[in-house]
Amino acid sequence: MTTSTPPIQEHWLALLQENGYRVTGPRRSVVEIVANHHRALNPYQVFELARQRYPRLGLVTVYRTLEKLEALGLIERVHQPHGCHAYLPAAVGHQHLLLCQGCGNAEYFSGDDLDDLIGRIAARTGYQIKEHWLQLFGLCTACRAGAQ
Length: 148
Ligand SMILES: [Zn+2]
Ligand SMILES: [Zn+2]
Fold this sequence. Notes:
Elements lengths: L6 H12 L6 H11 L7 H11 L5 H13 L3 E5 L5 E5 L6 E5 L5 E4 L5 H11 L9 E4 L2 H7 L1
Parallel strand pairs: 3-5
Antiparallel strand pairs: 1-2, 3-4
Helix pairs in contact: 1-2, 2-3, 2-4, 3-4
One zinc ion binds next to helix 6.
C-alpha cells in the first residue's frame, strides 16, 4: 500500500503558512505526527515520534509548533490525571472528550444532558453560564482487556 498524504495535515500546513508561519522540515514532521494520531500526546512523545522522521528535530521546535497549532485552534490541549499536558487534533464543533488513562486514546462524543445541571448551577450562583468543557477519563476496551 502506498502512503497517500492525508488531507488533514495539508490543511494544517496551509493554515500555518497563511498565518505567516514558515513550514520547515522539522515543523512539518511535528504537524504530521499530531494530525495523524487520535491519541493524546505530550510534547515529549511528539518529539520522540517526529524525530523518527526528522532526526535533527529539536524539542523547542516541537513546543513552538504545538503552540502555534493550538493558537490556530487546530489542536486542543487536554489535561491528564498525572498533571502534564497533552495535545489532540481539535474536535469540530462542540464535543466532549473521553480519554483513556492507560494508552491516551481519545474519543470525542457529542450530546449531553448537562442542561439541568447547568441550570441548577446558574440558579445557585447567579452566573450566566455561557460555555462548558467536559472531559471524562477511563480505560478503553484494549486497556481493560490488558488489565485483567
Ligand atoms: Zn487505552
Ligand atoms: Zn456539551
